[in-house]
Amino acid sequence: MGKFISAVLTLIFTIAFNSLLLAHPEGHYKKADLPNLHHWNLNFNHQQVIGNFLMQRNDLIVIEGIEGKMWTIKMNKLDDVDQAYANGEIEKINRLNGFNASEGTSNHSSTYFMYLLIFGGMAITFYGLSVYAARKKMNTNLRLAFSTLSVFAIILFFVSCKKDEPNNGGNGNGNNVITGIPKTTTSFIDSAFTHYKPKISTNWDTTYFYVSSTGIPNHNMMVGISSWQQQVPIPQDYSGTNHWSIPLQPVYATTPLSTRTNFMKGAVAIAVNGIPIFNALNNRGEDSYLIGELDQWGGHCGKGDDYHYHAAPLSLSTISGLKPIAFALDGFAVYGAKEPDGTTMQSLDTCHGHIYNNGVYHYHGTTNYPYVVGAMKGKVVTDPTTPAPENQILPQAFAHPIRPALTPLRNAVITGFTAPTSSSYNLTYQLGNRFGHVNYNWTTNGVYHFEFIDTAGITTTANY
Known about the structure:
By secondary structure, this protein is an alpha+beta fold. It contains six helices and 26 strands.
């Protein structure tokens, strides 16, 4: 009889789990679909996996390729761009289904059906066996075992469904949120970026407004920096899946995450000219503006030679007028020194904004700390691989360095920056009463030639 029970259990579990594995025996995608599938870059062996995002659990994502091929990959095994892309797909599903990103995502109705199939089938099977055993007057202990297993399967069903219920709260750190904010219209956001086209481009879906740019602003750069890291601006490819994403449906966070103790890495907003805005504090926790790291426009270059702001780009108001000068990555607009109707700026809260007459929250850029965002008023999802204070908001675009980061040049002041051609820059700096230069250009296939002339007149060159 023991062998009989073992055989029955094996059969039940085999049928149950095979029904899951073979639900789509040939998969959703055929060879003809290959051009439309995403190419995932793995950072540990430089290989690619071709397929579309299917689901996520904790730090794992499942990718489905052609003919039902599946890959389960740890997020940290993807390169930075594809980690951001995967988190963007996760966030889209979260917003559509009301899931908390920290708990992972899946299709709840299909998961519910899965549990019903497995544990419901087990319950019915064991109940049938217990009835059969009673009719055949089998051993009492055997009948009791079948009945117990039937009840146990029902309990497992309800417990599993309970664990899989979606969590409709959370601001990326487990806190509940307050909803009820009207969805931002794409025409409103797009009108703020219109003045800077075609140098930037925009598009959107039902969840995000996307901004693509070269990372080069519509104004001059670098002049006025007195604490220079020896980085210079080069064009960045903020396009394709590496674009900037603005949520169309902001959600208030119960506990806004302060920029004093968070987001020392990555952007907190995107300016309407396509330039990212970072925390007012650098990655050492220092006010970038006060220590002389920023130019006359509130920006400088990071270790990836990527130009970005740390202070509010208030100069954009000369072009943007009363429209927003930026949008935070939680979805709320950032205005300049005046309200949207041209009146004097009202008092600001600790997040550096307020709810205006239309009942919608917005931030303001100012000349004093925190300049743009004091805390993220809206819910954001943070990268689980970068703990505070160097956590970062996802999804967002990433820069791609072409050379190793250099060290600060103490007491150097940048006095000039010009663009002799559309693919070259000349930077001039002063050290004491002498001048040095960094002249560089690039080809269409991404080869950069640098000429460094130090204050003693010695020239060195490098290609990247």
